[in-house]
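If your schedule permits, I should be very grateful for your opinion on a structural question. Please examine both parts with care and let me know of anything in them that strikes you as inconsistent. The record follows directly beneath this note:
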Amino acid sequence: MATAEELRERLASLRKLRANGIQTVSYEDETVTYRSDKELASAIADLERQLNERTSARPRIFNIQGRKGYRP
């Protein structure tokens, strides 16, 4: 599983590729060629989703219970 920093690097790389109109990217020993801009945009959206899942704070849940009166 990739770390948040690795996801940020991949996301920046894909955004740069898309801005330059390039559809082939290499990560370490792997080369990926995207068939269309739509597929590249989908990959960017997926990386953004993964990054948000790893970096967003989870909401805190408080369960408040109360009683009226005294019960032994």
Q: What stands out?
A: The mean pLDDT is 85. The helical segments are 4-20, 37-55. The CA atoms of residues 51 and 57 lie 12 Å apart.
